[in-house]
Design brief:
Chain lengths: ~100, ~500
């Protein structure tokens, strides 16, 4: 059977997923993911064109609560697990390219 | 009899009557953990100081006349996927190593309010993805029945802690079978409540439309008692069902009387030829015969789409996981790798996730990203959601003919450590019989049902949505007829 997914496609998906996978991982994953995708593709055998999708088993919509204040985390608590914080905020690596 | 061999119901009664203190019971379990944990590795974190302080506080509450409930003072182990304020919570992943959550999960809060004493956090497959606990980033848990074998997964630590007598009760979470399959292969009881019957607030999300916390115990009554503590509507979870908790404890007591006259049990025709190894099929057949002797009637039913439950699940769950796990970005909590001042946020994010996630989590993120990507969405994720509708209809039709469905919990007994890790799809097959209830949302329980090749087999009882009491009644009846197997001494 033709491969459902190529090594290049796995590399592309890893980039989209923000995973800096190694070449060795790509070699392993490509074969494994191909086996998995061939197996799960069996859902396509079911005639379901007119069947509505189910995203969720609980039929609740627009769950609201009373508009009252409730206690929440303090700024200190919210930052307590951060890898890096500064001036009461999460500190992140640069997002924009530096100007030349 | 040693305190660690007693059921939670017995311990609760002894503590309530003042015969023993919660501190004594807690100390006995901590001593047992210290003795056997080297062999079992059920825990990722043992909170001795916190447990003893909580036990002393419960003893004081009881002395002051407070009556927090039938499990007050009884120890419990909690799967490491639920947040515990100030106590390390990793979900079995390196990406959360050392994280101490700033809040308690609703379920953890309810345990504390009911006077239960949290012993520690149990080992699990990373982010609850797996069926053997071998995908934990902190090493596997070993099955006390045979230390060369797996205890099931993802909640292998919770199940193993029970059968090693390290804890009388444990909390698990079940997305595709992660409470029931470990229960089956360790000879313990594991119940997946109705989806929405137990709160997901503070449960580190894997697949939000499927994740269901639930009780693990050595007896059906203990599981029901724990279920009653943790279940019920939670305004912090928008998928929590605003309805009373089904009378699970009463049902377990009623079932223990051993009378199932008039109950109709469904056997799924499509499961008959599928994958259960002969010893498992034989033990389950004997279990069903025992139910018939108690008065139940067996009816064969057809659920034609159950054959597609496994493929549908392994598209839906990875899709939701790829979205949920996007939050692990090295910014707000957990690991950050490669932030040396020269790299961009995106590079740091990719390096962090590469270093922090294990292989199974990466595989599922990639599959989910694929199934949700433009051009494949309809054929994979969209089609899987339609199959989910058809599986739900199969259940609805079946429950017009019968009261419960029964099946093996898992196709095979505990397998040797390492047997299935190189072929991920072989690992997925462990969930063959548990997944349908997750896609439907109804409750299901695994009860010990004899041995095959000297290893425990589980029988699964599936019930309609919000009929959790019904599954406890049948499970307790089976337990009264087929006593749970006693594990070997460690």
């Amino acid at each position: 059977m033709a491969a459902a997914i190529s090594r290049d496609e796995v590399a592309h998906l890893a980039r989209l997923s923000r995973l800096a996978v190694t070449d060795a991982e790509l070699n392993t994953f490509a074969g494994q993911l191909d086996v998995i995708l061939q197996a799960v593709a069996r859902v396509g055998e079911v005639a379901a064109a007119d069947i509505p999708p189910t995203s969720h088993s609980v039929p609740l919509t627009n769950v609201l609560r009373e508009d009252v204040e409730e206690p929440c985390l303090t700024q200190e608590e919210a930052l307590s697990g951060a890898p890096d914080a500064q001036d009461g905020r999460f500190r992140v690596p640069r997002i924009l390219e530096e100007e030349a | 009899m040693s305190l660690t061999r007693k059921s939670a119901a017995e311990l609760g009664a002894l503590i309530a009557s003042g015969e023993v203190s919660s501190v004594e019971v807690t100390r006995a379990h901590l001593d047992r953990i210290a003795t056997v944990e080297d062999k079992v590795h059920a825990f990722l974190h043992v909170d001795s100081d916190g447990a003893l302080a909580a036990a002393a506080a419960v003893d004081a509450r009881l002395a002051a006349g407070d009556k927090p409930g039938p499990l007050a003072g009884v120890p419990v182990a909690v799967k490491d996927v639920l947040t515990t304020k100030g106590v390390p919570t990793t979900a079995g992943s390196k990406i959360l190593e050392g994280w101490r959550p700033p809040y308690d999960a609703t379920i953890v809060r309810r345990l504390r309010d009911a006077g239960l004493v949290i012993l520690g956090k149990t080992n699990m497959d990373e982010f609850a993805m797996g069926s053997s606990t071998e995908y934990s980033a902190y090493g596997p848990t070993f099955n006390p029945w045979d230390l060369s074998r797996i205890p099931g997964g993802s909640g292998g630590g919770s199940a193993a802690s029970l059968v090693a007598y390290e804890a009388p009760l444990a909390i698990g979470t079940d997305t595709g079978g992660s409470i029931r399959q470990p229960g089956a292969v360790t000879g313990t009881v594991g119940a997946k409540p109705t989806y929405g019957g137990t709160s997901r607030y503070g449960l580190i999300a894997f697949s939000s439309s499927l994740d269901t916390p639930g009780p693990c115990a050595r007896t059906v009554l203990d599981a029901a008692l724990l279920h009653a503590v943790i279940a019920g509507h939670d305004p912090h979870d928008s998928t929590s069902i605003p309805a009373p908790v089904p009378p699970v404890v009463e049902a377990a007591r009623q079932g223990a009387a051993g009378d199932l006259t008039g109950l109709r049990i469904g056997l799924v025709r499509e499961f008959a030829g599928e994958g259960a190894e002969p010893g498992v099929a034989a033990a389950v057949r004997e279990g069903i015969e025992a139910l018939v002797k108690l008065g139940a009637e067996v009816v064969e039913v057809s659920c034609p789409h159950f054959t597609y439950a496994l493929p549908a699940y392994y598209l839906i769950a990875p899709s939701e996981c790829s979205s949920n796990l996007a939050r692990f970005d090295g910014v707000r909590y957990g690991l950050r790798v490669g932030d040396d001042g020269t790299r961009s946020l995106e590079e740091v994010m990719s390096l962090t996730r590469e270093a922090g996630f294990g292989p199974e989590v990466k595989r599922r993120i990639i599959i989910g990203t694929y199934a949700l990507s433009s051009g494949y969405y309809e054929a994979y994720y969209g089609q899987a959601q339609k199959v989910r509708t058809l599986i739900t209809r199969d259940f609805t039709n079946a429950f017009e003919q019968v009261d419960v469905l029964v099946a093996p919990t898992t196709p095979f007994v505990a397998f040797p450590v390492g047997a299935r890790t190189s072929d991920p799809y072989q690992m997925y097959l462990a969930d063959l019989f548990t997944i349908p209830s997750n896609l439907y949302g109804g409750p299901a329980i695994s009860v010990p049902c004899g041995l095959s090749e000297g290893l425990p087999v589980g029988l699964q009882v599936m019930a309609p949505t919000m009929a959790d009491d019904r599954m406890y009644r049948v499970a307790a009846a089976l337990e009264s007829a087929v006593p749970p197997p006693v594990p070997p001494d460690l």
